[in-house]
Design a protein that fits this description.
mainly alpha; Recoverin, domain 1; 47% helix; cytoplasm; 176 residues; two-stranded antiparallel sheet; Tubulin polymerization-promoting protein family member 3; rod-shaped; 9 helices; tubulin binding; single chain
Length: 176
């Protein structure tokens, strides 16, 4: 039973790494980039006995001749290929078990992901309370944009000159 749950978590790790970074991925096949990421994140590559070059060679060996991806069965074969290299002191079966334990239950790590922050000049430039001139007219007191009325000059078609004090009084002055 313990071996069965370990295989399920190994397959789950395969699926998580297979869909990593690819919005169209189904989780059934893994590309070379994600295979290399899995080996790096799960500490299969150690830089001495297993290098990134070894990982790429094993990927090329287990995939089909014209294929660019590997499925779950080929993934297990690739782990079998890397196991004796990674764990030289163990037998082939023990090495495969050890490499499966390294991979099982792991997820892709997001290291070095940049987060946007508004500090310094950006904060000053996006503060609408400090806007002047025509830009100031585009926002209300709360800083929310006024939309089209803030961008366009609304044309007064009343027939009067702008700032005329007695606008709209013509009809009352002219007797018919």
């Amino acid at each position: 039973m313990a071996e069965n749950t370990e295989m399920a978590s190994l397959e789950e790790s395969f699926r998580k790494f297979a869909i990593y970074g690819d919005t169209k991925a189904t989780g059934q096949e893994m590309n070379g980039k994600n295979w290399a990421k899995l080996c790096k994140d799960c500490k299969v590559t150690d830089g001495k006995s297993v290098t990134s070059t070894d990982v790429d060679i094993v990927f090329s060996k287990v995939k089909g001749k014209t294929a660019r991806v590997i499925n779950y069965e080929e993934f297990k074969k690739a782990l079998e290929e890397l196991a004796p290299k990674r764990f030289k002191d163990k037998s082939k079966e023990e090495a495969y078990e050890a490499i499966c334990q390294l991979v099982a239950g792991k997820e892709p790590i997001n290291v070095g992901v940049t987060k946007a922050k508004t500090v310094g000049a950006v904060e000053r430039l996006t503060d609408t309370s400090k806007y002047t001139g025509s830009h100031k007219e585009r926002f209300d007191e709360s800083g929310k944009g006024k939309g089209k009325s803030g961008r366009e000059n609304i044309v007064d078609t009343s027939g009067y000159v702008s700032a005329y004090k007695n606008a709209g009084t013509y009809d009352s002055k002219v007797k018919k």
